[in-house]
Amino acid sequence: MTDALLRLEGVHTHIGRYHILHGVDFAVPRGQLTMLLGRNGAGKTTTLRTIMGLWQASKGQVQFDGRDITALPTPDIAQAGIAYVPENMGIFADLTVRENMLLAARSGDLDVKRLQWIFGLFPALEKFWNQAAGVLSGGQKQMLAIARAIVEPRELLLIDEPTKGLAPAIIMNMITAFRELKATGATILLVEQNFMAAKLLGDSVVVMDDGRIVHHGAMAELAADQTLQQKLLGLSMEAHQ
């Protein structure tokens, strides 16, 4: 992998007495969208949380833009240019959409031009700008969570299952938004269970099973190989069109 923005080398993670990640090795190419796939419980969320320092790697190394960030505290990792959107979205329901966005802006202010670009991706956020985030639908809350991650330019976006539980029309909206993000040159590591989204968005793919990397390569190759899909994921992407 020639120009990897993120690289994990031999990463092990323990949570209490449980050994979750077992020597995870993979790289995320700069300017690409890398899909992180696997069955439930494979270790995908633990991988994202380990990258962010929310759970500490017990062995191995996480490198970001050539820098060892393995032992850094989470605020320092965020300050280095990595944004994380967890599966539970982590928005503040009692605050307005605007206040949620302001909290995510490291400068303490919102760039008007960038905000208009975000509204173009997620028009509902402009509509509910001064309303409490708690009144948003599930899909709108997910839009807000992603918008907070991109309220300022970030080097790397880590996003955990953004289409989970969403209606098909909202999923297509998300796919369009991620395509626009890709067009800006953003580097994204995306955990996803919706295989249509994975097929449409992914440049490269990493597949996990039981805390280990069992496959990596081009997303198009996995999407075209139903036998490999069945072997790695236990299902066919074509069955989920």
From TrEMBL:
Residues 6-235 form the ABC transporter domain. CDD domains: ABC_TM1139_LivF_branched. SUPFAM superfamilies: P-loop containing nucleoside triphosphate hydrolases. Keywords: Amino-acid transport, ATP-binding, Nucleotide-binding, Transport. InterPro entries: AAA+_ATPase (IPR003593), ABC_transporter-like_ATP-bd (IPR003439), ABC_transporter-like_CS (IPR017871), BCAA_Transport_ATP-bd_LivF (IPR052156), P-loop_NTPase (IPR027417). The keyword ATP-binding applies. SMART domains: AAA (SM00382). GO terms for molecular function: ATP binding. Coiled coil: none annotated. PANTHER family: ABC TRANSPORTER ATP-BINDING PROTEIN, HIGH-AFFINITY BRANCHED-CHAIN AMINO ACID TRANSPORT ATP-BINDING PROTEIN LIVF. Belongs to the ABC transporter superfamily. This is ABC transporter ATP-binding protein.
